[in-house]
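[audit] Reproducing an earlier prediction to check determinism. Same input, same settings, fresh worker. If the tokens differ from the archived copy the diff job will pick it up downstream; this log only records the rerun itself.
[audit] input (220 residues):
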Amino acid sequence: MKKVFTFLIIIGILLISGVIFLEKFHPKQEKNFVQERLMEEKPLKDKKIAMVIAFRDFRDEEYFTPKQILENEGARIVTISTSEGTAIGADGGETIVNMVVDQVKAGDFDAIVFVGGPGCLKYLDNESSYRLIKETISANKVLASICISPVILAKAGVLNGKKATVWSSPLDKSGIKTLEEYGALYYNQPVVIDGKIITANGPGAAREFAQEIIRVLTAQ
């Protein structure tokens, strides 16, 4: 009986030691390995993207949805506007502006993304934006634009002969008219890609817009 009792104690000690060893080493190592692999697999982990928004009344979904998707893939997002401080979306969303447009050099980023919304043309349809857009093309960077903001690309002169889309409605075709006046080839599609220029027609295309930015950036 004494021998059986001693044997059971030894077995118990061995089992406890084994559990402690596994808890101490294996799970931690496996967790670290998984975390490292997840970081390695982020397709945009070395990418820096500027998102240009109106200081007031940018379209919330066109900013926040692509921003989250791009950040989830490892990108560093820098928010650009015409003033410092807190930018406010048309639906009440708020975000901190990291830089003003005049400070931005296209060569410092992998992609420049223009966001639409009711305030887009009021705040961003100007020479500062045109300069940044033309620099983006000259630097061979990805240039993306959603909703009404492709109008600004057209006025900057970079859509001549390029396929593009833009926001429109049955009562307002002015965006299409402007694109065509500046030589763009308008396509009635949610997202249109022509080389490194990506355009989308509104908030409903925000997710696909972000996915195409990822695809073009990772194809370089």
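[audit] rerun output stored. Observation attached for the diff report: DSSP finds eight helices and twelve strands in the chain.
[audit] end
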